[in-house]
């Protein structure tokens, strides 16, 4: 017997965390690149 | 009697090896597709050939001291091979397009929808939760991650999920275009993006694997083996002081690992391991995973195009399924068909590489819940 509540938790948490991690990585990349580019131009 | 031990044992009164003949022919088909069509030849040729050999004489895999069983045990069951392959893949990957356009990471995230859609679908057709996760991850279009996760969660399905993942990666040019065309208008496909991405400095390329490793492992610890190996290989490539290691990791080391992976997967694909109704279902679900991953990537591309200052061709979202670089090439070809002045390859490489990272995170999350 499949516990659908648990399945939904796995899927929602999984997909949510994928977005969270890649979104945070995008924000970090953008911030780091902005700082590095400014520093390299100086 | 020699003739009584192998494929022709039925001549001496043994059972007729019908299923082994079918598995042998499928192996031959893999070899011919690899050679004639050049579909993932580096993996399909070794897998297909070993499949032919092992189905001519099935005790080869059953013998625990034999080559096939030994390589399978040491390479796959210990999870060593897929992880080491990630070092080579990291050394082959240029994160430049991703660093130049970080928002494409979201396209790689969106394409992981296919993983979860098929996770649900697999449960509906009767697979257990760990099996469904191993099948769903095929939608990430990442062979080594599929092998790694299946080994952890449902090793008995490995002979189905591994060939499904690799053969569908080879079939990306056939699977993706109809899905992309169904979801986009010709004018959307013709949207041109800046021909050049900004140049990314070496400092940025060195920092990327360090930042990404720290962030991802901090948030999803169980993705550490995959992410760690991938980013380690990339650091060797980008740091500028380990050229010898980078060259070895991306060439000879990688080639050896791919041969061993081919031997271990192909050598385990005896008819009784491979020709089961489950395998057919896994292949069927695998294609659904690829198609839905592509579709959701394109939809995300459309959404981002609505809110972005600079136009985004929604097709680059399709490259969020990680099959690197085939899905980016598919986007490039379709873009040029719609607008001959369109050069989308580098724009599509960003989501393409993001898809690899997204699939690792998805695998880490499955392990978090199910290990």
Describe the structure in your own words.
The complex is a heterodimer of chains A (42) and B (371). Chain A is 90% helix and 0% strand. Chain A has 42 residues and is mostly helical. Chain A starts with a helix and ends with a helix. Chain B has 371 residues and is an all-alpha fold. In chain B, 72% of the residues lie in helices and 0% in strands. Chain B is built from 21 helices and no strands. In chain B, helix 5 (80-92) crosses helix 16, helix 11 crosses helix 19 (277-307) and helix 15 (224-238) crosses helix 16.
**How far from one another are the termini of chain A?**
64 Å
Q: What kind of sheet is the major sheet of chain B? A: none
Pattern of helices and strands of chain B:
HHHHHHHHHHHHHHHHHHHHH
Shape of chain B: globular
Low-confidence stretches of chain B: none
Give the averaged pLDDT of chain B, no decimals. Answer: 90
pLDDT < 50 stretches of chain A: none
Total helical elements of chain A = 1
Shape of chain A: rod-shaped
Helix/strand order of chain A, N-terminal first = H
Derived from helix and strand composition plus strand pairing, the structural class of chain A reads: mainly alpha
Q: DSSP strand (E) fraction of chain A?
A: under 5%
Query: What share of residues of chain B is helical?
Result: over 70%
Compute the CA-based radius of gyration of chain B. Answer: 21 Å
Q: Helical proportion of chain A? A: over 70%
How many beta strands in the DSSP annotation of chain B?
Answer: 0
Main beta sheet of chain A = none
Number of strands of chain A: 0
Rg of chain A (C-alpha, Å) = 18 Å
**Spatial separation of the terminal alpha carbons of chain B:** 47 Å
List the helices and strands and how they pair.
The complex is a heterodimer of chains A (42) and B (371).
Chain A: H1 4-41
Chain B: H1 18-36, H2 41-56, H3 59-62, H4 67-77, H5 80-92, H6 96-100, H7 104-110, H8 113-124, H9 129-136, H10 143-153, H11 158-170, H12 172-183, H13 186-189, H14 202-219, H15 224-238, H16 243-250, H17 252-267, H18 271-274, H19 277-307, H20 326-338, H21 345-370
Helix pairs in contact in B: 1-2, 2-17, 4-17, 5-10, 5-15, 5-16, 5-17, 7-19, 7-21, 8-9, 8-19, 9-10, 10-11, 10-21, 11-19, 12-19, 12-20, 14-15, 15-16, 16-17, 20-21
């Amino acid at each position: 017997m499949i516990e659908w509540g648990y399945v939904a938790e796995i899927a929602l948490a999984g997909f949510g965390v994928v977005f969270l991690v890649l979104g945070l990585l995008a924000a970090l990349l953008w911030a780091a690149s902005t700082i590095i580019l400014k520093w390299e131009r100086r | 009697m020699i003739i009584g031990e192998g494929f022709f044992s039925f001549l001496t009164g043994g059972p007729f090896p019908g299923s082994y003949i079918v598995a042998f022919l499928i192996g031959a088909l893999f070899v011919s597709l690899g050679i004639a069509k050049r579909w993932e030849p580096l993996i399909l040729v070794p897998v297909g050939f070993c499949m032919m050999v092992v189905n001519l004489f099935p005790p080869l895999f059953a013998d625990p001291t034999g080559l096939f069983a030994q390589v399978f045990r040491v390479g796959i069951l210990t999870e060593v091979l897929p992880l080491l392959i990630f070092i080579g893949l990291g050394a082959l990957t240029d994160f430049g397009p991703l660093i130049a356009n970080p928002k494409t990471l979201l396209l790689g995230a969106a394409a992981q929808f296919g993983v979860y859609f098929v996770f649900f679908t697999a449960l509906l057709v009767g697979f257990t939760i760990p099996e469904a996760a191993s099948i769903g991850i095929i939608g990430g279009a990442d062979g080594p991650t599929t092998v790694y996760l299946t080994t952890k969660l449902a090793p008995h399905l490995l002979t189905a999920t591994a060939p499904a993942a690799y053969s569908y990666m080879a079939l990306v040019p056939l699977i993706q275009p109809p899905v992309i065309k169904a979801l986009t208008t010709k004018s959307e496909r013709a949207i041109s993006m800046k021909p050049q991405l900004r140049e990314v400095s070496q400092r940025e390329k060195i920092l990327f694997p360090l930042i990404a490793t720290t962030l991802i492992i901090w948030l999803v610890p169980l993705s550490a083996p995959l992410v760690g190996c991938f980013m380690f290989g990339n650091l060797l490539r980008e740091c500028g002081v380990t050229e010898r290691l980078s060259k070895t990791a991306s060439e000879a080391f990688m080639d050896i690992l791919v041969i061993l992976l081919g031997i271990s997967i192909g050598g385990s694909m005896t008819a009784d391991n491979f020709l089961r109704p489950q395998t057919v279902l896994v292949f069927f679900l695998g294609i659904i995973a690829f198609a839905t991953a592509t579709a959701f990537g394109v939809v995300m591309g459309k959404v981002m195009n609505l809110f972005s200052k600079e136009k985004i061709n929604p097709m680059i979202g399709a490259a969020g399924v990680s099959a690197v670089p085939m899905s980016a090439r598919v986007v490039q070809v379709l873009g040029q068909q719609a607008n001959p002045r369109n050069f989308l390859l580098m724009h599509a490489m960003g989501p393409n590489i993001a898809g690899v990272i997204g699939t690792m995170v998805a695998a880490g999350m499955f392990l978090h819940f199910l290990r």
